[in-house]
Specification:
about 110 residues; mainly alpha; 2 strands; about 5% strand; two-stranded antiparallel sheet
Length: about 110
């Protein structure tokens, strides 16, 4: 007899196309759910600015508007921390930046 617990279940989409149930991520999910980003919550613009300000890199207002000064500070922070300097706060940048969020200004 076949052990039904280890055999893949044959599923079909509404369109009638077979679904590979062994795949870990359904196609319609656009969010990166790999182990590397599991549990990652994107920071708010205010949190990014406050962390950059506390790190001594950003001198602008903490207004939630990520303009040119914020982008420049993000890029500078990334360069100082050996990250890809793309001006975007992704998981790796936020991991290093968030330690400054609850610190007092240096």
């Amino acid at each position: 007899s076949v052990d039904s617990a280890s055999a893949p279940t044959n599923m079909v989409t509404k369109a009638g196309t077979p679904v590979d149930t062994s795949a870990s991520m359904p196609e319609q999910v656009a969010v990166d759910t790999t182990a590397e980003t599991a549990g990652y919550v994107a920071p708010s613009p205010q949190d990014i600015q406050q962390a950059l300000k506390n790190a001594g890199i950003y001198t602008g207002a903490v207004d939630g508007n990520l303009g040119p000064a914020s982008k420049k500070a993000i890029t500078e922070f990334q360069q100082q921390n050996g990250l890809t300097a793309d001006g975007k706060v992704g998981k790796k940048t936020w991991e290093k930046l968030k330690v400054h969020l609850n610190q007092s200004q240096q």
